[in-house]
């Protein structure tokens, strides 16, 4: 019940145990094409270029940034948690001229603040996180999309923590590129990074296309400044997933099975229903921790549905309490990073764990751990408050 990775959906684990096939086997290429269509539904986009980058979520981030940013390009990063700092770090490694604006952890940006910064910096790209797992905050994106379009700025977003459990509208919000991972609301393991790229971002990437020497054909004239990474070269990866099937890496077949199954389950459930499931169980967990008498961190109006940050009661050893939850009840909750380390626990309700019994058992176990730590609590208050949410 941490902030991810979480208990994988058993159906995803089963899909991963299927036998491997070669990467140009017709069933494999059919799976790839099907997976592209499934992730278009998940991201809510018509972008043809919607596929998987092999690697954990940051592989998707690195692929997007290294393929779009050329050295010296101005990039604006609004930071409201740890993963905004990660975007800065990756953009700097791409040798961008990085500009930042920053909100205190636990808050999100007003569009006017972002608009002022866009006007002042005039960046090629704005890169932001949607849901920052470190603070649990979810940045509204629709206005930022409009601001980017009005100012001709490419709009990249890291949706790793939010996708599938919170409304996400790639096309309607005017995003150019979004990336994610499987290990949060998608209910899978880490190791595959779904990505979707708008036609105008595809043009920016393809303007730098330099096909690898050993597979180059007569039409592959090198142009633009070569993308600094081979593995994350989206121009080549698009040719690999596209009709041309131009060889690149050896596709991580088992992760493809996992990613396909995650999206298949989400689409079968219905994206809106999956978001509503996360909202409901997140609301029950929020009410439950408050019902125990605990204090929730941050601007709750902008909290992601799928994770809550709870202040560790004064005088309680937060790590010892987490260890007791794990050892006595088999339930893992999360610690936190940076300024919140030692201050809050993060409790997730996502993917396969966005279920009533998971919420109620966690609250019941947490009550026992708090009681053992002599924290004054409302007996039965956690499960009771969550049940009221379920009854409403
Ligand atoms: C919002 C966000 N972005 C990026 C990452 C990095 O993901 P990974 O560890 O899969 O590379 C995480 C991981 O928790 C995350 O929550």
From TrEMBL:
Molecular functions per Gene Ontology: alanine-glyoxylate transaminase activity; L-serine-pyruvate transaminase activity
Keywords from the named record: Aminotransferase, Pyridoxal phosphate, Transferase
Gene3D superfamilies recorded: Aspartate Aminotransferase, domain 1, Type I PLP-dependent aspartate aminotransferase-like (Major domain)
Cofactors required: pyridoxal 5'-phosphate
Domain Aminotransferase class V: 24-334
Keyword Magnesium tagged: no
Annotated residues for binding of substrate: 346
Coiled-coil regions listed in the entry: none
InterPro entries, sorted: Aminotrans_V_dom, PyrdxlP-dep_Trfase, PyrdxlP-dep_Trfase_major, PyrdxlP-dep_Trfase_small, SP_NH2Trfase/AEP_transaminase
Listed Pfam families: Aminotran_5
GO term, biological process aspect, one: glycine biosynthetic process, by transamination of glyoxylate
Superkingdom as given in the UniProt entry: Bacteria
SUPFAM superfamilies: PLP-dependent transferases
PTM sites of type N6-(pyridoxal phosphate)lysine: 184
Transmembrane segments: none
Similarity comment: family membership: Belongs to the class-V pyridoxal-phosphate-dependent aminotransferase family.
Protein known as: Aminotransferase V
